[in-house]
Amino acid sequence: MEWEAVIGLEIHVQLATKTKIFSGASTAFGAEPNTQACAVDLGLPGILPVVNEEAINMAIKFGLGIKAEINKVNIFERKNYFYPDLPKGYQTTQLDKPIVGAGHMDIALDDGSTHRVRIHHAHLEEDAGKSLHEAFSTGSHGMSGIDLNRAGTPLIEVVTEPDMRNAKQAVAFARKLHSIVTTLGICDGEMSQGSMRFDVNVSVRPQGQEKLGTRTETKNLNSFKFMERAINKEIQRQIEAIEDGFEIVQETRLYNGDTDVARSMRSKEEANDYRYFPCPDLLPVVIEDSRLEKIRSEMPEMPEARKARFINDLGLGDYDAEVLSCELATADYFEAAAKAGGDAKLAANWVMGELAKTLNQNDLEIVSSPVSAEALGGLVARIKDNTISGKIAKQVFEALWNNEGSSADEVIEKKGLKQVTDIGAIEAIIDDVLARNPAQVEQYRAADDARRGKMVGFFVGQTMKASRGKANPGMVNQLLKKKLQ
Q: Which domains does the chain carry?
């Protein structure tokens, strides 16, 4: 039987405000445990929360960024449950009247097509604290600790419709969302610090069936790689269970990316289990048209507009423009390199090729690249003006990566890598190569045109070897064809 997966996401996006959503406590990452939780965050008797205006503005920005409805009257509610890292015994969130209504995002697929993912809504809420198990599990008592610094940090939770059919689509959506929130400046996007966390709802059904299968939710995935693995693992688990005659149980699951182990956590709760009711301490939030227009006028260039500009103004192809416009840091790096190098297409090739490969090999983000955009642009410029060949350029790039020079020009000069473009010098090298290989010359001249095209590579290789890679490849090819006639 052919099976189809049905996937929906719930994404917690930590807003980049300086203070918490209902208090003046700091949201800075990395402080000592329990040093940034005030009386409001702890829900102590007599305290009253006050809504952080900047959190409201950031949520509106997000709604405008995904072309969603903005609910001009939205209400905060209390979601009641007990957990050690929830000191108040409830989470202040939104249910019936969230700030952001229905919207959508279009994602690019590997085959060049696009796929629309509908967004049901996005609501504002406060984050819970964090349970610390590892640091306390080595003792004889196996105790866990609680850090309440994160309690009260503002979040928007983005809830999609179940519009994705495989892990690649889900990851493409997550990457696009990451691009949007970082472009808007409402989230730093540092997933390793918990700034974005993904809950994945997965079910399977026979291909062609309309009715949805029973879904499970895998919580708190904090990397694209782990998300893809967790989804594929859960799809396979459900298919095998059904084919073996078992029923899928609606439950919450956990996935450990380091060990690639997934396990059941608890049965899945429904909304009525949480006894939602309007928060008596917070008035409805009313958003005026003037506020909407002000925020709309301050919106930055969004990824889709950036992609169109890269195509129309810089002459990039659709694929290159999609890859380079998706992440703000990558887009900024590419534009700076293209400006410094004077060739957008060549800069795109190097950013997407050698740079991306080396960053991946070293597990680095582009913002941490040892080769600056200006330095890469300088390298592109030297390729463009034939100072160096593409092959030598890789040596220059490696030297820049290893901090053996601050610019391509400095590395080229220091290592003597300047390309040989003097016709007389290249002719002398070619004459020597031909004199040392008379048999191959005779074979070439006796061959037909089809075979000559393949055989000329031998002479090109010998010439480049003799010049230590410095001879201009185009000139070598041109001169060889003349001399071999």
A: 3-294 (no CATH), 301-415 (no CATH), 423-484 (1.10.10.410)
